[in-house]
Task: inverse folding
């Protein structure tokens, strides 16, 4: 038989899957060990260099390195330095998701990710660059800026947000060649006060862009998330509260990863909605 490599089945040992998980989480729950792993992601280091960089005692460094080596998160090289293992690298890549949740634990104590697709929940760490929105004026300021500064496109999921002045900015964005797509509630209607305060020409312009295809809309009944974004910024990103409703106060970001996360999620729903 040619070139068959057999790897031991780690599940055959006495240690259960849950025990392995708990062991990993225990090692990663220590702030000092996390700092060491973070330094070793940058470059291989000897014990003395780790101690100097992190201002740890030699004894503390040696003890923590021994634990990391035993947990297979770190390995010793032939020159006596230490490097993070491929297993350690993967473990560290998963930490941003827990960071995002823990930093915003008060928000997620009352808001749910439950209905989001698993593949986007697993990428939730990409939202680490988001900032919470706590003022209503910031919400509308972000919305107006997204329309004003859009050069390529803007996307939204949920009820159209903003004031009557926002619709004027929408028309201006479409007039300068911005492409727009949105997924709205199937039974949404603009409030009468907005309909009456927006000039008829503006409504006609928006209707014309719909006809031309530069503004495309789809409709559905239920939403797992709402947001508005352009190619550079997420104006407002909101998750469900326990009552199954959305609030204005969520997150905003200009971070590239957060923008990509929202864009990918939009495309997922856009393809899914008929």
Result:
């Amino acid at each position: 038989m040619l070139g068959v490599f057999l790897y031991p089945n780690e599940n055959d040992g006495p240690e259960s899957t849950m025990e392995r998980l708990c062991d990993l989480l225990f090692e990663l729950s220590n702030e000092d060990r996390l700092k060491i792993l973070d330094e070793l992601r940058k470059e291989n280091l000897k014990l003395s260099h780790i101690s100097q960089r992190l201002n740890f005692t030699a004894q503390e460094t040696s003890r923590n390195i021994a634990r990391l080596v035993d947990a297979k998160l770190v390995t010793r090289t032939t020159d006596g330095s230490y490097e993070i293992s491929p297993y350690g690298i993967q473990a560290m890549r998963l930490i941003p998701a827990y960071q995002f949740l823990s930093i915003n634990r008060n928000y997620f104590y009352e808001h749910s990710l439950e209905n989001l697709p698993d593949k986007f929940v697993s990428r939730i760490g990409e939202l680490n660059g988001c900032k919470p929105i706590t003022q209503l004026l910031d919400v509308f300021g972000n919305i107006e800026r997204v329309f004003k500064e859009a050069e390529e496109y803007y996307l939204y999921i949920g009820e159209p947000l903003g004031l009557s002045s926002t619709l004027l900015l929408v028309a201006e964005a479409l007039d300068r060649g911005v492409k727009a797509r949105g997924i709205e509630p199937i039974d949404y209607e603009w409030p009468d006060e907005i309909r009456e305060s927006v000039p008829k020409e503006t409504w006609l312009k928006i209707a014309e862009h719909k006809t031309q295809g530069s503004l495309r809309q789809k409709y559905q009944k239920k939403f797992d998330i709402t947001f508005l974004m352009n190619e550079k910024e997420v104006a407002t990103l909101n998750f469900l509260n326990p009552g199954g409703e959305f609030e204005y106060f969520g997150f905003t970001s200009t971070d590239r990863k957060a923008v990509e996360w929202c864009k990918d999620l939009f495309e997922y729903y856009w393809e899914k909605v008929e």
Summary: Residues 197 and 230 are 26 Å apart (CA to CA). The first strand starts at residue 74 and ends at 76.
